[in-house]
Specification:
473 residues, alpha/beta, 14 strands
């Protein structure tokens, strides 16, 4: 049996001990070493090359977010973030997920044994999914390399086939072409393709890491002071213009890993009369879990500001984190993105994210308006919010043109009710394919039930979904 090596990173010796004990309850994992700072984490990731890392979000000298960016730029490793529930921890965790972290867990409360037990169970489940993801990607890469090698050296194949009939050889030569035709045309997952290039910081020698850290801290502080100096009340949605200051901060944050995405500028919101009317005839519903924040960022960035349907979203997350996720996605999207509240009326051009700890449903009120209903009933499929709960609430509304999508995530939440919607004649159903999924669990479950109209890589799914909604607009 394979034993996977883990690096545990936390500035608290006590927390390092707790996390180590929780990990090693599963004999498949062994904590190879621990680190107390981000700088130490980068150094040990280089020397140990562990199979997996658990990373504290908030640390002195170099925080978990910046350490993650450096490590992912040099050698993509599954990294699970450990986050507190303070404001800084929430925001940095969302950024870490965007930057390629596999997933996150909240830090356990050391005062409650049950909480430590629950966090340990969740952590080990995530670790198993993470190493399985890496193994699947390695197998796919190896298969592609074999096909590429065959194409590059057909003479070698012919030589090895000496003695066979020409007809058999001809059939053999057609096989790779069929394999290539079946390969998705999408790029590899963003977490891999955008992180494997060799950035300037990735080439920096080990002894230079501390100077880079100091320079990064200075630039972040300078950017922060400049931002505060120029701060002014937030503009209305109608008046919002691209925020160049945010790109300055992002540029400073990303200096240590120049190979990551170029700093993004906040997009202005476009105002359309339909946004204030509350009337619409179409609706989009999305479910996702592990890898979802990054997928949602990609997906929602494709939606125009005058998108003619509301979007309701369930992303498996604990309380508080969904608020930070909504705010973060809103800053990158032309549409509005909010954390849903009970009784909130749905409007076109707005995405509503179910708050952690509450099921979210859509309900038509007595004024023929559609509104959000939140509930704290028992978890469904182990989750609250549950994708199945949201999708089930859409079954009665046949007058709406409903478009349903399931993105990356472990488990099968959402598949059962997507099947019922599909059988009821819902307009379209989409699922993210394995090529771009962080975890191909929820989409696989839906595909196996035969209720997915279009199984696509994420970028293509986003384009097709927008076109499906706007084709009769």
């Amino acid at each position: 049996m394979s034993v996977y090596q883990v690096l545990v990173v936390d500035d608290s010796a006590f927390m390092r001990k707790i996390i180590t004990d929780l990990i090693q309850q599963d004999p498949s994992f062994r904590v190879a070493d621990t680190a107390a700072t981000g700088v130490e984490a980068v150094e040990k990731a280089r020397s140990l090359r562990p199979d997996l890392i658990t990373m504290d979000v908030e640390m002195p000298e170099l925080n978990g977010l910046d350490a993650l960016k450096i490590i992912m730029a040099e050698q993509p490793i599954p990294i699970i973030m450990l986050s507190g529930i303070n404001e800084t921890g929430l925001k940095e965790t969302i950024k870490a997920l965007e930057a390629g972290a596999f997933d996150f867990i909240r830090k356990p409360s050391v005062q409650f044994r049950q909480d430590i037990y629950e966090v340990g169970t969740e952590l080990r489940n995530q670790m198993k999914e993470a190493v399985q993801m890496m193994e699947r990607r390695a197998r796919r890469a190896a298969e592609k390399d074999e096909v590429a090698a065959w194409i590059a050296s057909p003479s070698e194949v012919s030589a090895s086939s000496a003695g066979k009939k020409n007809k058999d050889a001809a059939v053999h030569h057609k096989t790779p072409e069929k394999t290539i035709a079946q390969e998705p045309k999408s790029a590899p997952p963003e977490s891999v393709s955008k992180n494997i290039s060799a950035p300037r910081s990735a080439k920096t020698k080990l002894e230079d890491i501390k100077s880079i850290t100091q320079r990064l801290a200075q630039e972040l502080e300078t950017a922060k002071k400049e931002t505060e100096k120029k701060a002014r009340p937030k503009a209305s949605k109608k008046e919002k213009e691209p925020d160049k200051r945010s790109s300055l901060v992002i540029q400073a944050e990303h200096e240590a890993v120049a190979s990551l995405e170029a700093a993004e500028t906040k997009k202005p919101k476009r105002l359309d009369v339909s946004l204030s009317s509350g009337t619409f005839s179409k609706l989009v519903a999305i479910g996702c879990s592990t890898g979802g924040p990054r997928a949602l960022k990609t997906l929602l960035s494709h939606f125009p500001g005058d998108f003619e349907a509301p979007i309701v979203i369930v992303q498996h997350m604990p309380p508080d984190f969904t608020r930070s996720l909504a705010a973060r996605l809103d800053s990158f999207s032309e549409i509005h993105v909010v954390e849903a509240a009970h009784g909130m009326l749905l409007k076109a051009g707005t995405a509503y994210i179910a708050p952690g700890g509450y099921h979210m449903r859509v309900r038509e009120n007595r004024h023929a308006e559609y509104e959000i209903v939140l509930g704290s009933e028992d978890p469904v499929n182990g989750h609250r919010p549950s994708v199945d709960t949201l999708f089930e609430s859409l079954l009665p509304y046949v007058a709406l043109e409903r478009h349903i999508a399931i993105l990356t995530g472990m488990g099968s939440d959402g598949a059962r009710m997507m099947k019922r919607l599909y059988e009821a004649g819902v307009t379209s159903t989409f699922a993210e394919n394995e090529e771009t999924c962080v975890v191909y669990g929820m989409p696989r479950a839906a595909a196996e039930l035969g209720c997915v109209n279009q199984l696509l890589p994420l970028e293509e799914l986003a384009d097709r979904l927008v076109k499906a909604v706007t084709r009769n607009g």
